[in-house]
Amino acid sequence: MTYLIAALLGVIQGLTEFLPVSSTAHLLIGGEAFGYDDDAFTVMIQLGSILALMWLYRVKIAAVAVGLPSDPDARRFVLMLLVAFAPAVVAGALLGDFIQTVLFDSPSIIAAALVAGGAVMLAVERFGPAPRVADAERTPLARAFGVGLCQVLSLIPGVSRSGATIIGGMVMGLDRAAAAELSFFLAMPTMMAAFVYSLVDVWDQLAPERAAEIAVGFVMAFVAAAAVVRPFLRFVARSGFAPFAWYRIAAGAALFVAIAGGWL
Q1: Cα–chain center distance at 217
Q2: What is the pLDDT of residue 1?
Q3: Quick check: 248 and 117 in contact, CB under 8 A?
Q4: At what angle do helices 39-56 and 23-34 cross, to 10 degrees?
Q5: Are 26 and 221 in contact (CB under 8 A)?
Q6: pLDDT of 104 strictly over 70
Q7: How far apart are the first and last CA of the chain?
Q8: How would you label 126-162 residue by residue, b for 16+ Cβ within 10 Å and e otherwise?
Q9: CA spacing 20 to 30 A to 248: which of 65, 92, 121, 122?
């Protein structure tokens, strides 16, 4: 039964990490529902999602790595990511302890963030600026920095890192597909830094007897994330983000009901 729960949580992590619905909220709720609360497990299965994304973009990563010494486009791409990544590094260093010890213990904050994020998503879809950037790799540095500032909001559980960066990208003038792809590019350094930071905290919890459970969750997170990224890009280019917005609102409302009923 433990392995089944590990597999289910791995699938939840992989499916929700890159969708604008908050993987953190889903893992917290899923862990509560299954009676499975393990920080070390959560940290390690997130690595599965990160590696899945890096595998999907392995050609791009290799091209940038090889071209970095001589290719201006490769250097500009890396600079763009660093500019977008910087705000989250500063905010995480200043606020990380408060967020982990206070905000993550409040289901009400998660529920409110889900509902508010859905409402903002609907508003940007309807009233957002006309797209001016159709290629994520060519995002101007000022716009990339704006997306990075929006990513800071994802430190609040329930906001969603992908949701904050995608909506931020649209506000900054990227079209839907470009905003989603920039979110994926930015996820690689952001999530890897978060993984390393979290791993230091849970290192002493990684006992050998837990290896099988962690391996099951890791593999399922990798497979689920690898399966969802490309279809998600095609879907949002065609249909937009409204379905995810309404899902967030419904999930947040359900969470408020669960809190009021004493189930959480």
Answers
A1: 17
A2: 57
A3: yes
A4: 140
A5: no
A6: no
A7: 22
A8: eebeebebeebeebeeebbbbbbbbbbbbbbbbbbbb
A9: 92
